[in-house]
Amino acid sequence: MTPLTRRRLANFKANRRGFWSFWIFLVLFTVSLGAEFIANDKPLLIEYENHYYWPVFQTYPETTFGGEFETETDYRDPYVRDLIAAKGWMVWPPIPYSYRTINYNLPVPAPAPPSADNWLGTDDQGRDVVARLIYGFRISVLFGLVLTVFSSVIGVAAGAVQGYFGGLTDLLFQRFIEIWQGLPTLFLLIILASVVTPTFWWLLGLLLLFSWTSLVHVVRAEFLRARNLDYVRAAKALGAGDVTIMVRHVLPNAMVATLTFMPFILNGSITTLTALDFLGFGLPPGSPSLGELLAQGKANLQAPWLGLTAFFVLAIMLSLLIFIGEAVRDAFDPRKTIAQMSTALPGEAAAATAARKEAAE
Amino acid sequence: MSLMPPNPDLLSVRGLRVDFRSGAGATQAVKGVSFDIQKGETLALVGESGSGKSVTALSILQLLPYPMAHHPAGSIRFRDTELLGAEERTLRQVRGNRIAMIFQEPMTSLNPLHSIERQINETLFLHKRLSAGAARARTLELLRLVGLPDPEKRLTAYPHELSGGQRQRVMIAMALANEPDLLIADEPTTALDVTIQAQILALLKDLQSRFGMALLLITHDLGVVRKMADRVCVMNQGEIVEQAKVDDLFIRPRHAYTKKLLSAEPRGNPLSPPEDAAEVMAADRLKVHFPIKKGLLRRTVGHIKAVDGVDVAVRRGHTVGVVGESGSGKTTLGLALLRLHASEGAIRFDGTDIQGWQPKRLRGLRREMQIVFQDPYGSLSPRLSVGQIIGEGLGIHGIGDAKEREAMVARALEEVGLPPEARNRYPHEFSGGQRQRIAIARALVLKPKFVVLDEPTSALDMSVQAQIVDLLRDIQARHNLAYLFISHDLRVVRALSSHVMVMKDGKVVEQGPTQRIFEEPREEYTRALLAAALNLEAVESPAVRT
Fold first, then answer.
1. Could A354 and B52 be called an inter-chain contact, meaning their C-beta atoms sit closer than 8 Å?
2. Residue limits of the ABC transporter domain (chain B) (predicted)?
3. Cα–Cα distance list, B450 to B280, B317, B474, B482, B488 (Å)
4. What DSSP state is assigned to residue B300?
5. Is A4 on the interface with B (CB under 8 A)?
6. Spatial separation of the C-alpha atoms in residues B468 and B416, rounded to whole Å
């Protein structure tokens, strides 16, 4: 690890709020990745007639457990439960509902208020809100992450080419981006959503068409600046090719800007997906999504647990990401990093600092 | 204030300390500095970068970035006023009024959005409360005083329309607007060409005697000190190590550091390789023209001739020094020879014309022609280790395997006087001189035949300059290298080059053996350049710009 990286990590840790947000977010995200083991309408493990069964991983027909149908077992059926309990036992996840499990045993018409059975109540179709939240959180974050990574890769590449080659390439590309950004994204998405049935990947592709431009300007500016620096010229004099120079010498500089922006792009991506879901142009019907929960909250004002839950989960998730983003920004802040390095290194570096100070004056 | 004893000196600084807080610790920039300035005298603060001289000067007007900077101890008294920790109101009355300051970089110390008239009027309005008409008259008078040509026309000019020297004149006019008692000049000529430097120094001296003001001159250039100062304070690492009259200092330096500083001038003579050595790099009628485009259709209406028909030949083991002022096309010439810049005219490397070769074809030749840049802070990738930086060329040209490359890098580092362990560290851990050594090692490791040295010493302190010059000469002798040495510093050129080319406006004014050029220059421009560079004399000549 280079001293620079170490210094940055220290800076990241020094921002307590961001540091803790990072860990909380990481734990939440890891937990939600294992959503099938936490909220599911299938048991984790069944012992039946001295055989072990793993319903989470494998489907078993009802006949396995002495039932009558050849179809997949409905483990929530009281009849099946009795069958299994007679000759063995089963272990349920802490929340015995999946995101699409409909609870038919509600004492009141759906949406049902929070109870011991449904911790945060059910939505208007009788589905458990906690289960939908866990799955919804996972899909939101995953969607955001994938979109962020893809748009960063495209954005960095486009910005790099523009900035490095400059001139006509830059001019044409810039005009193209300006026109592209002028397109009314939301309307296009709505129109496209009515032509194709949106799936996770369709939506991702559609949003990617417009989201990649966000990083281009920053990266382009970094490349424009760096391409005239002496060390780039020195690399040319050594005989390095354009790609080598871009990747080895200029990109590391642009990465700082990119990494600083990333948490905020992630935030934006999540918000976009939520907004589309809220409007009903997002993920296919039935998918667990925070936006859909919000829409339900709006439609069922008499059931405030829906709206409040969706609001708090979104607010907390976005705040955590913003705090992390702030910490990342601190970590990459060259003024902070370099100021601290100079105090950390005695001798030679002190002279360099003083020189820098003098130069700054 | 009335309780203080009257101050016999104009300015007295006592036990001044400046600390910079950064992160957890603090850096001591100035550690207890004391000096006085009398009315009308010139005191020079001399030292290398990082010695604390600028910080000292800035603390007089309390212009440091407080509260990042703070003064644990000390006192600064201007006449009977204590400036250290004085109220902002008191300071404002002193700043720009009784004590004025001019800065090193005239490019950035003038506001680019304000006309010259507005910039100078500002101080007049602030301190003298003149009417618009009176201020205009005074501004004109000031501009005439500082010798700005056509002052009436220049009133409405913006900084970018003026040359560096003219901008510095405007800065001086601003500083003089309220006839200050003390003028602090922080490296006033460092950013300027030698001929302009001489003019500005002459102007300062003239104005000083006319107004009887005191001058605090901050500089690293002993030549300027000798020319201008009455007394000298030598600063090193935040302390004044010696204080003396200027004549005494140069004749009988007492402190070891002063002696080191005085002996730091680049010295020694260029090597004398055989006259008939083979030509390594040559160019005939080399031209680099930048088109000037105008109008809606961006039609080319003319050309800026950065390099205009230059013939040059560098032989094995020889150094051709290229001297000239900024904008004369020296650096462009160097870049064009290496085919790093588009040009016209024949470029022969080892007898083969490489003009018009495709970049791919040139790549193989790149290892034989190398370049060392001026700014050692900008020429090393900050995110690569020294080993990676030096080894990059080896990788590109596929020389040796990983182990051999490592050994070559270590050897190159040893050759430039750095420990081989340095390869695992990063550029920011090294001082300017050490970084320049790394840049030289990067060029050397490929065993080139021809190296362009683009002002390799100008960003360095005097004592480091001498070391780098010695190093370059050693390496040249060992490997029989051909150098194209670009510099505006004639002293360095004399120490290294066997042959000198004087450039002006893209053309070669005069060229010949170093000794001949220095001892009997034929052209008027060369004479003016030499007088300005070596004796800091301003020459009134049509060949010299203002």
1. yes
2. 13-262, 292-530
3. 7, 9, 15, 5, 20
4. E
5. yes
6. 9
Residues paired with B284 in a beta bridge: B346
SS3 B328: coil
Q: Is A13 on the interface with B (CB under 8 A)?
A: no
Per domain, the residue ranges of chain B are: 9-263, 276-368+448-545, 378-447
Q: Is A353 on the interface with B (CB under 8 A)?
A: yes
DSSP class per residue in A157-193: HHHHHHHHH-HHHHHHHHHHHHHHHHS-HHHHHHHHH
Q: Do domains B9-263 and B276-368+448-545 have the same CATH topology?
A: yes
Give the integer Cα–Cα distance in Å for A110 and A94: 22
d(CA A230, CA A234): 6
CA dist B209 and B188 (Å) reads 18
Distances (CA, A) of B257 to B28, B32, B70, B254, B451: 20, 18, 27, 9, 34
Q: Do B23 and A340 touch (CB under 8 A)?
A: yes
Phi/psi at A120 (nearest 5 deg)?
Answer: -115, 25
d(Cα B162, Cα A230) in Å, to the nearest integer? Answer: 27
- In this complex, do A230 and B378 lie within 8 Å of one another by their Cβ atoms? yes
Three-state DSSP state, A10: helix
Q: What are phi and psi of B91, to 5 degrees?
A: -65, -40
The superfamily CATH assigns to domain A3-34+130-334 is MetI-like (1.10.3720.10)
What residues pair up with B512 in beta bridges, in sequence order? Answer: B500
Q: Report pLDDT for A35.
A: 87
Highest CATH level, class, for B276-368+448-545: alpha beta
Residue of B nearest to A254 (CA): B383
- What's the distance, CA B391 to chain centroid? 30
Q: Is A171 on the interface with B (CB under 8 A)?
A: no
> Domain spans of chain A?
3-34+130-334
Kindly report whether the peptide bond that precedes residue A113 is cis, defined as omega within 30 degrees of 0. Answer: no
How many beta-carbon pairs below 8 A join chains A and B?
A: 124
Q: What is the pTM of this model?
A: 0.74
Residue tagged 């460092």 (tokens): B190
For residues A14 and A330, is the Cβ–Cβ distance under 8 A? yes
Residue A157, beta-bridge partner list: none
Ranges of chain B with pLDDT below 70: 1-7, 22-25, 106-107, 296-297, 538-546
Dihedral angle over CA of B144, B147, B152, B158, nearest 10: -120
Give the pLDDT of residue A61.
86
Eight-state DSSP code of residue A64: G
Ranges of residues in chain A whose predicted pLDDT is under 50: 341-361
Beta-carbon separation of A357 and B20 below 8 A: yes
Instruction: Measure the CA–CA gap between B223 and B268, rounded to whole angstroms.
Output: 18
Check if CATH label 3.40.50.720 holds for domain B9-263.
no
Farthest-apart Cα atoms in chain A, separation: 87
Alpha-carbon distance of A139 to A289, in angstroms, equals: 7
Question: What are B409's strand-pairing partners?
Answer: none
The position carrying tokens 């490296």 is B187
Scanning B146-272, the segments in alpha helix (DSSP H) are: 151-154, 164-176, 194-211, 222-228, 246-251, 256-262
Distance from CA of B132 to the nearest CA of A (A): 32
Give the gap in angstroms from C-alpha A157 to the nearest C-alpha of chain B. Answer: 20
Given a contact cutoff of 8 angstroms between Cβ atoms, the answer to whether B220 and B515 are in contact is no
Q: Give the position of tokens 């004796």.
A: B535
Q: Which residues of B touch A4 (CB under 8 A)?
A: 383, 426, 428
